[in-house]
Amino acid sequence: xxxxxxxxxxxxxxxxxxxxxxxxxxxxxxxxxxxxxxxxxxxxxxxxxxxxxxxxxxxxxxxxxxxxxxxxxxxxxxxxxxxxxxxxxxxxxxxxxxxxxxxxxxxxxxxxxxxxxxxxxxxxxxxxxxxxxxxxxxxxxxxxxxxxxxxxxxxxxxxxxxxxxxxxxxxxxxxxxxxxxxxxxxxxxxxxxxxxxxxxxxxxxxxxxxxxxxxxxxxxxxxxxxxxxxxxxxxxxxxxxxxxxxxxxxxxxxxxxxxxxxxxxxxxxxxxxxxxxxxxxxxxxxxxxxxxxxxxxxxxxxxxxxxxxxxxxxxxxxxxxxxxxxxxxxxxxxxxxxxxxxxxxxxxxxxxxxxxxxxxxxxxxxxxxx
Length: 370
Ligand SMILES: Cc1cc2nc3c(=O)[nH]c(=O)nc-3n(C[C@H](O)[C@H](O)[C@H](O)COP(=O)(O)OP(=O)(O)OC[C@H]3O[C@@H](n4cnc5c(N)ncnc54)[C@H](O)[C@@H]3O)c2cc1C
What we know:
Elements (H helix, E strand, L loop, with lengths): L1 E7 L3 H10 L5 E4 L13 E3 H6 L7 E5 L1 E5 L4 E5 L5 E4 L1 H14 L3 E3 L2 E7 L2 E6 L2 E12 L6 H5 L3 E15 L6 E5 L10 E5 L4 E7 L2 H10 L7 E15 L2 E2 L2 E3 L15 H16 L6 H4 L1 H19 L2 H11 L2 H10 L5 H9 L2 H10 L1 H7 L1
Parallel strand pairs: 1-2, 1-11, 2-8, 5-13, 11-18
Antiparallel strand pairs: 3-7, 4-7, 5-6, 9-10, 10-11, 12-15, 12-16, 13-14, 14-15, 17-18
Helix pairs in contact: 1-3, 1-6, 8-13, 9-12, 10-11, 12-13
Flavin-adenine dinucleotide binds next to helix 1, strand 3, strand 9, strand 12 and strand 16.
């Protein structure tokens, strides 16, 4: 068998790229699991990105138009009239993308494991039966523990965090996410609540499981009222190179993840567009450079992450006091971009009063912003 492109991994990124390339080139996708989805992922995607990336509406479970931010002692709310983010079902998201790719001519090999390369061919196994496939280009979209990355000699300089997420019954405001930034609950990350409706929400964090347990108690949610529990890993940092010979990495395999929120769907999709163009032009080596806007965002996110890890709760309370002011909330409501944190922070930094306030409570944050 010979294809133009063999995509290894039928998660979000692999299916998204397959949809972009199918019909233009001979494309195949190899997916280890027998069905799509199942990954630990809250599934929050900024509404602007969701629409710009033309993601399938069938995947949407709920729309969020605001968020309530909680520190240890304060809270404030930001909201807009229009939906700002969607919570999606990963299984449906991946299935719908795969269906579109198949309709355009892509081949799918489900329950098929990529084992490694032998010369110019990919070694695959399906139910213990081994076979080989050849392609002009290979794409490793096989997630954070990428076998393809190992095969092409990519090295990681990253912080790997375990994430926990459960779907739990409780009382929620359907259109409002909750973000809790409280170091006595979790030193390493914030905690989130993403409602699927008034009765069920996805609740999670990264770091230690005990952080999530403490949070559930504080938020009056019972672990025994959970109807789903998932564990996953994200890598915040760099895995390079993204290209080795005729093989490229995409999505979590390349650690295309926001270090501030651990969201990877949008960056994976943006990079898929760059990779599709590079493959179609036959110049796969241009891919990494053409993703420079995403690389800048990752780099900025890593700086913010370092600032966050060094902040005390007192510092967080100081930042909350400033962000909860009317002026800051207006900037967030009018100018914040769910997927472009650099732009959001630049908008805040343009306001002299906010900038001076932040400089007073956290000089390191301002150094990072500037
Ligand atoms: C707790 C948690 C919450 C998150 N919440 C969000 C969120 O709200 N929003 C957001 O944008 N991101 C979120 N993320 C990150 C998001 O899940 C990832 O960035 C996204 O799944 C990356 O997609 P991907 O296709 O690159 O990788 P994956 O989704 O991991 O897909 C990789 C695919 O490759 C397959 N595979 C692996 N090895 C092989 C092999 N050898 N052969 C064949 N197939 C193989 C796997 O089975 C899998 O289907 C979250 C992550 C975690 C852990």
